[in-house]
Amino acid sequence: MKDGVLIIDKPEGMSSTEVVEHVKRKLRVKKAGHGGTLDPFATGVLPICLGRGTKLAQFILEGDKEYEGHFELGLVTETYDITGEVVERNPVPELSLEEIQKVFDEYVGVIEQAPPAFSAAKLHGRPLYKYAREGLKVEKPPKKVEILVFEALKYEPPYVHFRIYCSKGTYIRSLIHEVGQRLGCGATLVKLRRLRKGSFTIDQAITLKRFDEEVESGRIERRIIPPARALEFIPALTVGPEVARRIRNGRPLAVSALANMIRLQKVPQKPRVPWLRLVTPEGSLVAVIEYPEDLNRPGNVKMVRVFPEGF
């Protein structure tokens, strides 16, 4: 079974795409893709969708993220991380952990953030880092992201150790750069480790070395998370066999019928992700649907993806 999601502990120095290609080559699968880019200098949770599991990538990309890392005060680079060319060195003021935490607290909640110039975010179909390497200054409009937890763990001047829990689309490098500006001396991200992406945690991740060993020993399939389990971060709603059959055959589901099922099954009415998972009583995945903004409106539910063969 090579359909599902494999969680790799991405090593430092490799791009997310390079890790995917390594896994794809070793497993001899035709389709594979990652569920959220990590910068080459970053490590940690990298979900890799395999085979039919690639149908889940759009949902895995939406999951919240948790990181730990540290940054250096008084240092500013062009990329906002330690891999970039140094553009400023500034004296670091006297600071306490409590003072740093107060600045962190200013960013908790919904904020607007633009991607850094040296990033893979695209403008007119071209990554921003390509413009930056040519000396062109271009900017993408800022987007809203949400910081749920931003915690200063330890201060060892000039290094600040932190933990952050945030929504999809948050650029930690940019956030640390802003914090450095706010503290009056600048800051550069030195280390970053992703501990969680959606429902996937570092405890589930294996190193590339262990991955290679388990491929050779024929034990790697036990590490592949089945598609139905991979979407457990999306609230589930159970539908009967007849409803499942109708949906898989392309028939609509009325919002009123969905509202009744939600009330009967006491499904959370404001999930953090904008979807619901429809599953059979046996746990087979039927569809992922868009959670209606108004459960009292007429019309049909929007199907984001239907799984005719189930998982």
3D structure, described in words:
By secondary structure, the chain is of the alpha+beta class. It has three domains: 4-63 and 200-226, Pseudouridine synthase (2-Layer Sandwich), CATH 3.30.2350; 65-197, Pseudouridine synthase (2-Layer Sandwich), CATH 3.30.2350; 236-306, Roll (Archaeosine Trna-guanine Transglycosylase, Chain: A, domain 4), CATH 2.30.130. 24% of the residues lie in helices and 31% in strands. The chain has nine helices and 17 strands. The protein has helices at residues 16-27, 57-60, 97-105, 128-133, 172-182, 208-217, 227-230, 241-248, 255-265, and strands at 4-10, 32-34, 43-50, 65-73, 75-77, 86-89, 109-113, 122-123, 126-127, 143-156, 159-166, 187-197, 200-201, 236-238, 275-279, 285-290, 303-306. Strands 1, 2, 3, 4, 7, 10, 11, 12 and 13 form a nine-stranded mixed sheet that branches. Strand 5 (75-77) and strand 6 (86-89) form a beta hairpin. Helix 1 (16-27) packs parallel to helix 6. The chain starts with a strand and ends in a 5-residue tail after the last strand.
Radius of gyration over C-alpha positions, nearest whole angstrom: 22 Å
The number of domains is 3
Main sheet record: 9 strands, mixed
Q: For the residues shown, what is the average pLDDT?
A: 89
Distance between the termini: 12 Å
Please give the share of residues in helix.
Answer: 10-25%
- Beta-strand percentage? 25-35%
The number of distinct helices, counting runs of at least 4 residues, comes to 9
CATH topology of the largest domain: Pseudouridine synthase
Low-confidence stretches are none
CATH class of the largest domain: Alpha Beta
Give helix and strand order, one letter per element, not per position: EHEEHEEEHEEEHEEHEEHHEHHEEE
CATH architecture of the largest domain: 2-Layer Sandwich
What is the assigned CATH homologous superfamily of the largest domain?
A: Pseudouridine synthase
DSSP strand tally? 17
Structural class: alpha+beta
Shape: globular
